[in-house]
Amino acid sequence: MKTKLLATLLVGTSLLTGCSTVSTKSESMVDISNKDKAIAVLNAIETGDSKAMAYVNATNYTQHNLGVADGLAGFGEVLQALPKGSAKVDVVRAFEDGDFVFTHTDYNFFGPKVGFDLFRFENGKIVEHWDNLAVKATQPNPSGRSQLDGTTAIVDLDKTAANKALVADFVDTILINGQYDKFGQFFDGDNYLQHNTAIADGLSGLGQALEAMAKQGITMEFSKTYKVLGEGNFVLAISEGTFAGKPTAYYDLFRVENGKIAEHWDVIETILPKAQWKNSNGKFGNL
Questions:
Q1: Is a pLDDT exceeding 50 seen at residue 216?
Q2: What is the C-alpha separation between 131 and 250, in angstroms, rounded?
Q3: Residue 171 CB burial class (10 angstroms; 0-12, 13-18, ≥19)
Q4: Residue 245 — left, alpha, or beta (φ > 0 → left; ψ -120 to 50 → alpha)?
Q5: SnoaL-like domain spans which residues (predicted)?
Q6: Are strands 100-108 and 88-97 parallel, antiparallel or unpaired?
Q7: Over 80: is that where the pLDDT of 236 sits?
Q8: pLDDT at 65 over 80
Q9: What pLDDT is recorded for position 209?
Q10: How far apart are CA 237 and CA 241, in angstroms?
Q11: In Å, how far from its chain's centre is CA 118?
């Protein structure tokens, strides 16, 4: 019932026409951070909280999830299709970088999933959304870790720029250009916590996983990085490439400690064939 209520509100005339009750900034909207607004909108998928929709620009909302039609109407259609009472949302991590907020979330959204969501704000309202979703694993990875557990505390805010530069360099040098002889400069020996479902901790675990994939003829390639965002010790890199020969979107979250990459989470999603796109904005459009 709550999901249906929210969907009705999303596609309702008052929202889509940008009436004054939605478009006018209230005092509470001024006081709340963009990060908290994004969390409220995600939580509303589960709770049906109509007030959270005031944080979305109802007349200017661009959708980059290729399985969802553009605008709030498209989002509303998806919510209406959800089985009643099935939606669950637990935002595990949330970060803010300029006009962007990105979140790491435990979902039940047409089944258990893990996702990264990226929101862009203008004048205090959400105007654009990107995401990457994957089915939630039922078993821990070889080191006993899940896709979501691990450190959540944001520290070292004064090192945000340096940490973003480190991750950008790592993605370009190692993941895109394959200069594996430079691996060691980005890590503190084998001290590296891994949350990918198939890979164990440490550079040794990564090496073993890559070797196993090679034996199976599975390749993982990165061709371009579109965005590197961060807050303190956490940095998100959004990239495009192929996995097992299929066009793929990579969302990689890194935790940096003392100038080295210390922990990693990811969501890898196959990009839908263009014939199946429900909007024309592109998976990485405007990034």
A1: yes
A2: 10
A3: buried
A4: left
A5: 41-129
A6: antiparallel
A7: yes
A8: yes
A9: 87
A10: 13
A11: 5
Strand order of the sheet with strand 193-194?
A: 193-194, 260-270, 246-257, 234-243, 220-231
Residues 83-141: pLDDT tens digits?
A: 999 999 999 999 999 999 999 999 999 999 999 999 999 999 999 999 999 999 999 99
Instruction: Please check whether the two domains, 2-136 and 157-270, share a CATH topology.
Output: yes
Cα separation, 245 vs 280, in Å, equals 23
Amino acid at 229: L
Question: What span, in angstroms and rounded, lies between the C-alpha atoms of 287 and 269?
Answer: 17
The two structure tokens encoding residue 185: 């400069």
Maximum separation of any 2 CA atoms in the chain, in Å: 60
3.60.21.10, 3.10.450.50, 3.40.30.10, 3.55.50.30: which CATH number matches 2-136? 3.10.450.50
Given 3-state DSSP classes, what are the helix, strand and coil percentages for the chain, each rounded to the nearest 5?
Answer: 35, 30, 35
Both tokens of 222, joined, read 């990165």
State the residue for tokens 């479902």. Answer: 197
Model-level pTM?
Answer: 0.91
**If you average pLDDT over residues 223-236, what whole number do you get?**
98
Domain ranges in the chain?
2-136, 157-270
Per-residue pLDDT, averaged over 231-260, amounts to 98
CA dihedral 135, 136, 141, 144 (to 10 degrees): 180
Q: Give 267-274 contacts, CB < 8 A, sequence gap 24+.
A: 267/114, 267/115, 267/116, 267/132, 267/133, 267/134, 267/147, 268/132, 268/134, 268/243, 269/132, 269/133, 269/134, 270/243, 270/246, 271/66, 271/240, 271/246, 271/247, 272/66, 272/67
